Amino acid sequence: NIILTSDGSFIKINRKEQEEKIGEEVYGIPKKVPKNVGLKISIAFMFVLFVVFAIYKQYTTPVTTVIVSSSIQVKYEVNKFDKVVYVCSNDDLGKELIRNTDPMDSAIDEALKTCIEYYNDSKLISASGILITVNGKALEYGKLQETANYVADKKLNVLMNNAGNQHKLLDNVLNDTATSTK
After folding, report:
1. From start to end of the chain, where are the E strands?
2. For the chain, which end, N or C, has fewer CB atoms within 10 Å of the first or last residue's CB respectively?
3. Is the pTM of the predicted complex or chain greater than 0.70?
4. 67/65 Cα distance (integer angstroms)
């Protein structure tokens, strides 16, 4: 029941008898629900919704484009967490590569390694080798450790242009191992 108190405020009370008449004095236990709880819940819900939307927007916004070219070309869009958020290819072999490797939401290092493995296993590497071009935000040095190790094991010719900084991936791995053993 909602009653009007002697000081003019309205409060909710719990009462077992429901046979009150207007103007009659009523006694009961006040409900323990704070005022405007609906408003507080809706504000908290809007805040949580805003945070979830901001995280989703950060995750789905690409900041780096990685293009892997050899006899076929595959384009990866990478977010700021180094996860693949979009991948495409223009030809049928590239679409088959995407279906077989399934790089969505994986780390760019893992996606590039599986892509180069697929190229190598399917004999799709051209005579000039593989070119990896990074546009947008450059990938940090050392981020492609699994890919570099695979390239070193198979002795593949992989040229990487990391936002203007061009180098051979195999040479970098060999130089790093030579300096770490000294």
Report:
1. 2-4, 10-14, 29-30, 64-69, 73-78, 84-88, 130-136, 158-162, 165-168
2. C
3. yes
4. 7
